[in-house]
Amino acid sequence: MASKAVYSQRDPMLKKRDDFEDILEERRNSSDLRYALRCYAPVVYKGLCPSKAGTLKSMVLQSDQLHYVIHQVCRETGRAVDDVQEEASSILEEMAHRLQLSTVRFFAFTLSKVFKTLFRSICVNEEGIQRLQQVIQEHPVVLLPSHRSYMDFLLMSYLLYTYDLALPVIAAGMDFMGMKFVGEMLRMSGAFFIRRSFGGDKLYWAVFSEYVKTMLKNGFAPVEFFLEGTRSRTSKSLTPKLGLLNIVMDPFFKGEVFDVSLVPVSISYERILEESLYARELLGVPKPKESTSGLIKARKVLSEDYGSIHVYFGQPVSVRSLAEGRVNRCQFNLIPRHIPKKPSEDIHSFVNDSAYRLVRAQEENMVLKPWVLLASLLLQNQVSGQKRGIALDELTEQAVWLRDLSRQYGAFLHWPEHTPPSEVVSSSLSLHRGLVRISEGRVQLALDKAAPGEPRSAVTPEEELLSQAVIILSCASYRNQALHVFLRPALLASAIHTASSNKKQEVFNSFSFLRNMFSNEFILCPGATVQDFEEACYLLVKTGALQVTQQEVLVTERGHRTLVFLTSMLDPFLQGYQVVCRFLCEEATEALTEKQFIPAVRKFIIKHLLAGRLRYTEVLSSDLQKNSLAALLRLGAVRKIKGAEQGTLKVNTVMVNSLEDTLGGKLPTQKAVIARL
């Protein structure tokens, strides 16, 4: 039996969360070959024998729903039935998994070697595994892992194999299929491949949805997909995509299954393999195409230390329970089940609310490492203009303060209890030594990347700025892991600063505006503004930072430090949205398209950063720029012109100016921002 990690039970705030065990401990002490070739007899849904891939394909191609859509396509296009059936068959051939135990055993052996080299530990909550073992036998199961790394779906399959659980079938992007050899290996370990977008392709959608529903209804294997749709390059949770969630809920809505169990899984990496790759992508360096040769070149990562991984299998969520009192299933009795029907408004709203709840469940069970707190502090210190960095003992004191605050806010923090704080901090800095520099007892971000002896003139100011931005965006991705903990109090802290008075209604109005503005940026559940405001007030009152009466919100003397930290956490996002507003008012042309927006706004931001008019290098993040444009489109301040060149943007300058003012006025100089704080 692997050793237990006991830190989770030491803090009274964390009692509701399970203990962990390190599965690599056993792998380090026994044969990997014996592990890969061991007897594998997973429990399955209602004792069914897993179906062969060929049988599954036949069931899909013979389904009433697919036949209905095939005849519909024939009527609309005039094509012969055989021709459309053949196309459906080739779509399925391209898509379908070919799960083979021999391939799984190969991966089990190989990944054991890789994981032991890369990671110090892989910690799993055993109680979550036991809950999953139980629920797999009772209902069709859908696994919903967070998605921060390519490693996620390999890791999930590895864990289920380790614990003798049925291997999942996994929705993977088509780009993986282009990897020679590896693409087919993934297919034989349970991946099924789907296009990133279907457009209006009815036939593709019908084949895809029927394939997923057939696997789910018959309980052949747990279905696994990423609610966020793609890897988060920023370590923030992404707005959930609803397509696959709609598909897996549909058999329940139509009464074809009694229930469906949704299991959110939180995967937390102490150090992300793609760290600098993500930062470069956010700065406009194209994402490398997935290829086998690229994978082989990536072998140099095996010489690095990536710390630990924590995987937390959350409480299974019953779709039946979620839908009780929300969904009237009688509407599905009015037309035959096999006729595809666009989800009604109430179904769409229910699926959307459920998706947000599930992503929130993922966030709340993310394990935060000390480095997440250190990155938050170092980023704020770097912006405050301390060129020489921060003294190591001062950073340790701040980290302990932030550790205690985050625990009071309910963070799931892995901070070694019996180790002196100075050692915890030094160990974290050592693991992330590519991002920080320690000199003469002072710590700062490693922004000076010029090689020793290389003349400074060899690097242009813009190149230097972008190389610094890689470090800053990498650090920000770790800080972002803690955003869900501080987000609501930070929105309230910023609202207090921007509100025209300390009247509770004024502060609430300001909070409501900011929350609405940032609802593309963060996971903020629809319709929960009052609840979020009350939660933020509760946390800040509980920690002694605020006094809240019926009429007023007052900052206490001891609350100043907390509010400065919280507003500083949100300030890069505020400035990012402000600078996008400024760009749209000053430089957007009549012919600006959505495709041209990111390169044009990046150029504008670089100019302002080099001129010293912006404080936050983080505003170079394309993710921040896309989210701010999405918010402006949602609010109607920018709209897409129909019939014009694809994605041409029409800017309502008066409205954009007004939003910029409400966010905090003109782009602040450094003095103005410090004064405001």
Secondary structure blueprint with pairings:
Blueprint: E1 4-5, E2 20-22, H1 23-29, H2 32-37, H3 53-61, H4 64-77, H5 81-95, H6 101-118, E3 121-124, H7 126-138, E4 141-145, H8 151-162, E5 169-173, H9 182-188, E6 191-194, H10 202-217, E7 223-224, H11 243-253, E8 261-269, H12 275-282, H13 292-297, E9 308-313, E10 317-318, H14 319-323, H15 345-364, H16 370-383, E11 390-391, H17 392-408, H18 421-431, E12 436-439, E13 442-445, H19 461-479, H20 483-498, H21 504-517, H22 529-542, E14 546-548, E15 553-555, H23 559-586, H24 594-610, H25 622-634, E16 638-640, E17 649-651, H26 653-664, H27 670-676
Parallel strand pairs: 3-9, 4-7, 4-8, 5-6, 5-7
Antiparallel strand pairs: 1-2, 2-3, 8-9, 8-10, 11-13, 12-13, 14-15, 16-17
Helix pairs in contact: 3-10, 4-5, 4-10, 5-10, 6-8, 10-11, 12-19, 16-17, 16-19, 20-21, 20-22, 20-23, 23-25, 23-26
Describe this structure in words.
The protein is of the alpha/beta class and 677 residues long. It has 27 helices and 17 strands. Strands 1, 2, 3, 4, 5, 6, 7, 8, 9 and 10 form a ten-stranded mixed β-sheet that branches. Strands 11-13-12 form a three-stranded antiparallel β-sheet. Strand 5, helix 9 (182-188) and strand 6 (191-194) form a beta-alpha-beta unit. Helix 4 packs across helix 5 (81-95), helix 20 (483-498) packs across helix 23 (559-586) and helix 23 runs antiparallel to helix 26 (653-664). The model is unreliable at 1-15, 450-454 and 665-677 (pLDDT under 50).
